[in-house]
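Quick one, probably user error.
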């Protein structure tokens, strides 16, 4: 029994040899489900709203979407450091309150300035609550693994499944409410986070067993000198940039093929349904057959193949159902790649982090990748607006995850 497991009270300790989660882990996993229902009720429809209702140019839409990701992912390091210092509960509650305010503001924002302000607030809210929850899930997963409760990747796969279940429900809810208007969608998202805030104020313990708060300053210097960790961050950032094309390149392709944004909700649902139904078997297979590095490399190559598929089909300019098939293939390959990349990347972080700095390192993983997405999304928006041959933007995007394979750490820790 390791020091993390010994610190847990008996009712929260995993039984020796058990393949189950603890009550605390179940709460955190359900938290991810609730977060994503509220978030994905709004986000898939943001690009269309910015381009039509607000009247932004394509490059500006890409910049705003990248800014949203950067204000979230890029500031995860702040949320992670605050979690190490003050604990999980206050950081989660503060983030939920800011998300409520951000969605409410976005629903009434009509100009570029207010929209950017609302998007920044929405992103920073997640920069608080997400690293708090993710780092605690990773910490508990390590304790469970070392107590004989199964590999940590299984817990992180469950966490991914919960998030994707929320990502499945959210767009369907948003599409239903969009029949009214975008403001209604935003207010519904805010309402969901009100419920999340109230629930966690009641259920989440003030002091989580086994978590020791870090009072000493520092930690950034050793992190910046950790080449293996930074390599993981950059490879994960390439994956996240590719995943972000669900909100930028994919909507443009769906609009071109069908003349409508309506199929977008169903493609998001397809992605989420694949993760919900197959993430655990894929994680089990990958854990038995592949090292962590090979799992991430295989996932990145599948993601690249998804972009290449659309690039190959794009010059034909097919429309209707036939024109939508390459986009559906892209979603499938991207999703399978995600299933191989995301749980393994999160499971790798505890082995690369300094003791007592798991929140900081969990946040830094997303911060570095968020910076990559900010730059990459603006470039993607420009590519889509330049009038280049139709396959070129997709071929450029296909090259990004392939290049990222070389950045993965060579020595294994998982």
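Nope, works fine. Designed sequence:
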């Amino acid at each position: 029994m390791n020091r993390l497991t010994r610190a847990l009270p008996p009712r929260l300790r995993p039984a020796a040899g058990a393949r189950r989660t603890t009550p605390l882990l179940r709460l955190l996993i359900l938290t991810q489900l609730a977060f994503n229902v509220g978030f994905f009720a709004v986000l898939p429809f943001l690009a269309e709203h910015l381009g039509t209702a607000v009247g932004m140019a394509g490059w500006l839409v890409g910049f705003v979407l990248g800014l949203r990701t950067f204000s979230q992912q890029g500031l995860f390091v702040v949320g992670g450091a605050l979690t190490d210092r003050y604990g999980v509960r206050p950081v989660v509650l503060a983030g939920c309150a800011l998300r409520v305010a951000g969605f409410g503001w976005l629903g009434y924002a009509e100009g570029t300035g207010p929209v950017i302000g609302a998007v920044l607030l929405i992103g920073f809210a997640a920069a608080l609550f997400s690293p708090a929850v993710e780092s605690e899930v990773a910490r508990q997963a390590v304790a469970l693994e070392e107590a004989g409760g199964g590999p940590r990747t299984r817990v992180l796969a469950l966490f991914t499944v919960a998030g994707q279940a929320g990502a499945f429900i959210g767009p369907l809810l948003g599409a239903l409410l969009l029949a009214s208007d975008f403001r209604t969608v935003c207010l519904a998202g805010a309402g969901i986070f009100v419920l999340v805030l109230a629930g966690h104020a009641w259920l989440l313990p003030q002091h989580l067993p086994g978590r020791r708060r870090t009072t000493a300053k520092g930690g950034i210097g050793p992190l910046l000198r950790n080449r293996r960790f930074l390599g993981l961050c950059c490879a994960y950032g390439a994956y996240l940039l590719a995943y972000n094309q669900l909100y930028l390149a994919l909507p443009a392709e769906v609009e071109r093929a069908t003349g409508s944004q309506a199929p977008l909700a169903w493609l998001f649902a397809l992605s989420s349904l694949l993760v919900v139904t197959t993430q655990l078997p894929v994680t089990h297979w990958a854990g038995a057959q592949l090292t962590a590095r090979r799992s991430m490399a295989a996932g990145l190559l599948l993601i690249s193949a998804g972009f290449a598929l659309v690039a190959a089909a794009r010059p034909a300019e097919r429309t209707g159902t036939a024109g939508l098939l390459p986009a559906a293939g892209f979603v499938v390959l991207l999703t399978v790649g995600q299933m191989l990349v995301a749980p393994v990347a999160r499971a790798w972080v505890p082995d690369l982090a300094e003791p007592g700095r798991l929140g900081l390192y969990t946040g830094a993983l997303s911060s570095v990748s968020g910076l990559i997405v900010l730059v990459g999304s603006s470039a993607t928006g420009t590519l889509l607006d330049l009038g280049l041959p139709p396959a070129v933007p997709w071929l450029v995007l296909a090259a990004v995850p392939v290049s990222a394979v070389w950045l993965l750490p060579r020595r294994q820790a998982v």
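The chain is about 75% helix and 0% strand.
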